[in-house]
Structures are given as C-alpha cells and as structure tokens.
C-alpha cells in the first residue's frame, strides 16, 4: 500500500500518538487475557479477518478460504470459547507478547480512520515458543466518545503457519 | 530406536478383540525411514485438483511425499507432474508457488525447459556433444505415474504400482458421493490453509476419521452451535465406520449441523431453504431418492491411504499432510464446492468451514493440541508402550464412534511396513 496523504476530515482528526495509545491498550488487553474487555473495543458490526498467505492480502472472505473471517457475533463466540477451560488449545493459556510498531494513519474520513502498523506476536505454550509477524490494518471508528475497531485484518508475512501450527490466540 | 524391538508394530488379538499399536511407531526414526521407502514411495499420493490449473501454462509447486513437484497444465491442456530439479546440477527450477509459464528456466546456468520438462536450450550449447538435447537425461524428470479420478490428481513414485482406480477400490463409491454433489464439476476455492503440528502424521490420520473424540475434544464447538439460534437440527450423531480395503476407511453418519450439500438449518433462512430444497430435488431427479438422501444427510470422513482426507461434513475439505520428521507434520487443506453454487451457498460453506475447521477454527486447534499432547506422551513409550484401537472390534457392525476405519489404516500400514498379513477379526 502506498503512502497516502491525510485527507480533510469532518470529525476532529486523531493524531498518531492517540492511535498508538489505543493500539498499545489493545495489545495489553490481549497479553493479559482480558479478552471480554478487548471485545468491547469493537463496534457491533466489526469484522476480524486473517487471510491465508497464498492469495492477495486484500482478498475477500466471501469467495476465499481464510484462516479466520469473524463477524462480530463469531468474534464474541471466539472470546467466550477462549475463556473456557475446554478450549483445550489455549489451556493452560499461552503467554503472549503483542508488539506494535511503524504505526501510520493512512486516511481519515467521516469519523473513520485507516491505520496500518507492523506487528510481532510472541507465544509460548508448554515448552514451545514461536512468533507471528506481519501487518495489521485497523479501521477505527472515532465518531463516538471512545475509539472503536470497525475492522481488523491481520496480514501474515509467513508462508502459511509452518512454524506456528495454529492461530489459537488472537493476533 | 524401537525400545522393544522384538515387539510387533501392531498387535492384533482377534479372540480378545484387542488391537494395539506400538507407540514407537510415532517416534522411531527407523520406522520413519521405512515409511518413506514403503509408503510414500509406493502409494498413490494426492497432488492437486484439476480446478487449480485452469489455463494452459498454469502451475503450482508442491512438496509431495518429500519430493519437490511442479504440477502444471501444458499448451495442449494435458496435466503434468515434474520433479522440480534441474537435470544439470539439481537446483529447483521453478521457485514460485504458483503462476503461469510457457517455459521454466533454471536461474543457475540458464537452462530452459518446456512445459513437458524437455530441455529447450542451454547457454553454450556448442560445448555439448551432438544429440545432448535429445538425451532424456537432459530433461526435467517426469513423475512416473500421474492419474486422476474425477478431477482429483494423484501421483505415484513407483512405476509398477497398480492403477489409481484399482488402488482407490471401494473408496470410489465415497468419492462419487462427494463429486456427484456438483453437476458442473467441483472446484477448489481460493486460499490454502497451510499449517503444522508437532505430532506424528499417523495421529492426524486417526484424528481425521475419529467419531469418538467430538464430545470431549470439541465441547466448545458444540457449545457454540447450541448457542446459535438456528445453528442445529435435532438430528443425532449416528452412523457406521467401515474398512474399505487397501487401507482406506470411512465413517458415514448423520449429524445435527447444517450441510451445504443438502441439510438445511434455520439459520440459513427461507432463501437458503429454497436453495437446499432445489438442490435435493435436482439430486433426486439425477440419482434417485436413496442416493440423493445419502448425499444430503450423511456426513463422510474419508481416508484415502495413506494421507488424503476428504471430509464431507458441515463443509467440504480436502486435506493432505506429510511428515517432516517423526514428530512434525505439515498440513495443506483446501475448501471445495460445486462450481455452480450460488454466492449465498458459497458463504454458508465457507462460514461453516471456518467455524469448525482449520488452524483458526473453533475445533481444529483443539485437535492439534490433542495430537501434540499424544506426541509428548510418547516420551514414555518405553514403559507405557501401546495405543489402543480396539473400540467396536467385537461388533459385527461398528459404529461411527468406533475404530474400525482406523484399524483399516493400521493393517495396511503394517502390511506395507513389515509384510505381515494379520487376520481381520469380526467387525474389522
């Protein structure tokens, strides 16, 4: 994606430090397994997508097989599941560290902000540690009192998940 | 090393209805080496689906049975499988995962090959003997056997192997039940799930056709379906497990979830119902009621020995996997559906897939965890030596939550590895 200039906005524009604070909060909630609180960061119509790595990063989940393509309902169910002891893949909970960098605001229009950043997420389960890395694309809704995530897409830079095995945590 | 090297790899006691598999089979490097020689070098292995190569020149590269393969369609539309090694010094010729190419060029010394792997040109041709280019050894080697069944392409590294159709044997009936869901052909849907497990590949064979583990391993998935309004019918999990011969096995059963192949759930709405009704009516007309009902309402977890799984369940998946070592496997999984399917039906299919299947689903990650825990448990295999695969052995008609279909796999595995022909007991 090319570097885009900021567009004039209707709402008061958000600054990069504000966006960074928000993304750091999101990362902290995930690392602390405060998933219900994390879920509150999303709008009611939010989506959370992780495309596979052998198709275009902006491909649609309507006609491609993704790793994850959650609407808000399924995202909520994902959180419910992960908080149960019977979510065997994440019991005991793995330890994670979500790192965010290279945060850039791509556009701001009508209360919606497109943000991209790089990420590395480390995970330890049992005696194994591995990591995920790539780019996050957030669409943030700043029209209300709180910043909300309207869309989050995780674009992995690996070829598949040969070293990670699965995506049982939230990236 | 097998710590108890005098023990059989598979121990079958038909009188006591016991079927035991040595845990060293999941850890022993010697067993692993024999598997490469006697299974992955001699069995028919799934390569890809015809729909992945649409136009002449289309290719994908894939590792199959430890070999690096180019699967491509030539100018005449013929499908080909080439060993992806330059005849000159052996470098991988094609370094892209997929694409379209009129020719393949090895970048090392610049040799150029046609879509059939034949050497077209090489820099400094004058320095080679006359006729060098006509020597078959100057070409990229073709995989000895490439055959297809209803759009599914398989390769075999053994030139003497039986035909694919003979190899598939009784499994063809089940492949037909899957392929007959489309009148305009099946297609693989874009996007591959590529993942891995720190587990022996045979654990995934068992798991993929295991009707016994669902309630315990997949409690959260079942919770999810129950909590979703209209997500389930009141149909029970019920059916049979079968040894299909040649190492193939299947479980075939009814289940409460929605099937894009013909079992409607109220979540899909009136429009979805009309579509499913029309689909079932079409199938009844084409195949008669009995077969149409079987297509619509029966789920199938099908194993084609040794490592192809076609699960025709709440969605349709093609899954193949290869060991990298005794304790690491790589999985490639695809979703498939009828070409003629509507946009809405395609979405139900993909949505159903992602809810359950794959490394980000609500079920598969728990399978991965189970298999990895088994592999960790096999550290004790010198003392705690045997896996039990006896469930349903005493029954004439084993059910879908018994283990006859796994015993089918293990018998063939044992036969190929050790040459032993152990008698089949009651109920297989």
UniProtKB/TrEMBL annotation, chain A:
A single GO BP: 3-phenylpropionate catabolic process
CDD domains registered for this protein in UniProt: ring_hydroxylating_dioxygenases_beta
Listed transmembrane segments: none
Cited InterPro entries: NTF2-like_dom_sf, Rng_hydr_dOase-bsu
Coiled coil: none
Keywords: Oxidoreductase
Superkingdom of source: Bacteria
Gene3D superfamilies: 3.10.450.50
Any Pfam family matching the protein: Ring_hydroxyl_B
GO MF entries: oxidoreductase activity
Family assignment from sequence similarity: Belongs to the bacterial ring-hydroxylating dioxygenase beta subunit family.
Name recorded for this polypeptide: p-cumate 2,3-dioxygenase beta subunit
Source lineage: Bacteria, Pseudomonadati, Pseudomonadota, Alphaproteobacteria, Rhodobacterales
UniProtKB/TrEMBL annotation, chain B:
Annotated organism of origin: Marinovum algicola
PROSITE patterns: RIESKE (PS51296), RING_HYDROXYL_ALPHA (PS00570)
InterPro entries cross-referenced by the UniProt entry: ARHD_Rieske_2Fe_2S, Rieske_2Fe-2S, Rieske_2Fe-2S_sf, Ring_hydroxy_dOase_asu_C_dom, Rng_hydr_dOase-A
Top-level taxon: Bacteria
The name this protein goes by in its record: p-cumate 2,3-dioxygenase alpha subunit
Keyword Hydrolase: no
Rieske domain: residues covered: 45-155
GO molecular function: 2 iron, 2 sulfur cluster binding; dioxygenase activity; iron ion binding
Keywords noted in UniProt: 2Fe-2S, Dioxygenase, Iron, Iron-sulfur, Metal-binding, NAD, Oxidoreductase
Pfam families: Rieske, Ring_hydroxyl_A
Taxonomic placement: Bacteria, Pseudomonadati, Pseudomonadota, Alphaproteobacteria, Rhodobacterales
Recorded family membership: Belongs to the bacterial ring-hydroxylating dioxygenase alpha subunit family.
């Amino acid at each position: 994606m090319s570097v885009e200039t900021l567009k004039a906005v209707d709402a008061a524009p958000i600054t990069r430090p504000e966006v960074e604070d928000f993304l750091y909060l999101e990362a902290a909630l995930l690392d602390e397994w405060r998933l219900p609180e994390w879920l509150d960061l999303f709008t009611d119509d939010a989506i959370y997508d992780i495309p596979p790595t052998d198709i275009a990063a902006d491909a649609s989940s309507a006609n491609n097989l993704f790793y994850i393509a959650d609407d808000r309902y399924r995202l909520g169910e994902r959180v419910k599941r992960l908080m149960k002891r019977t979510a065997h893949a994440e019991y005991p909970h793995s330890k994670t560290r979500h790192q965010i960098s290279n945060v850039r605001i791509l556009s701001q229009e009508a209360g919606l902000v497109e943000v991209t950043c790089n990420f590395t997420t480390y995970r330890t389960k049992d005696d194994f540690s591995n990591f995920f890395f790539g780019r996050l694309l957030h669409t943030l809704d700043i029209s209300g009192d709180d910043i909300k995530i309207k869309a989050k897409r995780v674009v992995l830079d690996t070829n598949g998940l040969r070293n990670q095995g699965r995506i049982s945590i939230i990236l | 090393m097998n710590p108890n090297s005098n023990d059989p790899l598979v121990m079958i006691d038909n009188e006591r209805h016991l079927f035991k598999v040595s845990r060293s089979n999941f850890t022993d490097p010697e067993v692993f080496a024999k598997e490469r020689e006697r299974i992955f070098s001699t069995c028919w292995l799934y390569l890809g689906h015809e729909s992945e190569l649409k136009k002449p020149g289309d290719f994908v590269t894939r590792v199959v049975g430890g070999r690096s393969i180019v699967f491509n369609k030539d100018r005449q539309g013929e499908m080909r499988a080439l060993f992806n090694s330059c005849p000159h010094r052996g470098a991988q010729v094609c370094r892209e995962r997929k694409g379209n190419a009129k020719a393949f060029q090895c970048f090392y010394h610049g040799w150029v090959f046609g879509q059939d792997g034949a050497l077209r040109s090489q820099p400094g041709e004058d320095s080679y003997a006359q006729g060098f280019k006509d020597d078959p050894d100057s070409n990229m080697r073709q995989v000895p056997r490439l055959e297809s069944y209803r759009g599914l392409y398989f390769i075999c590294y053994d030139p003497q192997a039986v035909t694919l159709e003979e190899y598939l044997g009784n499994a063809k009936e089940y492949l037909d039940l899957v392929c007959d869901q489309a009148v305009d052909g099946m297609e693989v849907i874009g996007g591959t799930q590529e993942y891995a497990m720190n587990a022996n590949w045979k654990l995934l064979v068992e798991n993929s056709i295991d009707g016994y583990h669902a309630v315990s391993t997949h409690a959260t998935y079942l919770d999810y379906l129950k909590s979703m309004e209209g997500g389930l019918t009141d149909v029970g999990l019920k059916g049979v497990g079968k040894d299909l011969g040649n190492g193939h096995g299947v479980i075939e059963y009814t289940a409460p979830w929605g099937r894009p192949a013909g079992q409607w759930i109220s979540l899909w709405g009136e429009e979805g119902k009309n579509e499913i009704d029309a689909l079932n009516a079409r199938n009844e007309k084409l195949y008669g009621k009995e077969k149409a009902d079987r297509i619509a309402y029966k789920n199938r977890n099908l194993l084609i020995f040794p490592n192809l799984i076609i699960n025709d369940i709440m969605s349709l998946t093609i899954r193949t996997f290869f060991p990298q070592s005794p304790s690491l496997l790589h999985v490639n999984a695809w979703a498939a559906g009828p070409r003629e399917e509507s946009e809405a039906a395609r979405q139900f299919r993909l949505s159903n897939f992602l809810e359950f299947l794959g490394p980000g689903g609500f079920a598969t990650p728990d399978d991965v965890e189970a298999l990895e825990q088994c592999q960790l448990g096999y550290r004790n295999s010198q003392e705690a030596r045997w896996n039990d695969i006896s469930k349903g052995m005493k029954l004439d008609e084993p059910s879908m939550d018994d283990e006859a279909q796994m015993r089918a796999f293990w018998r063939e595995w044992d036969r190929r590895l050790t040459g032993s022909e152990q008698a089949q007991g009651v109920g297989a």
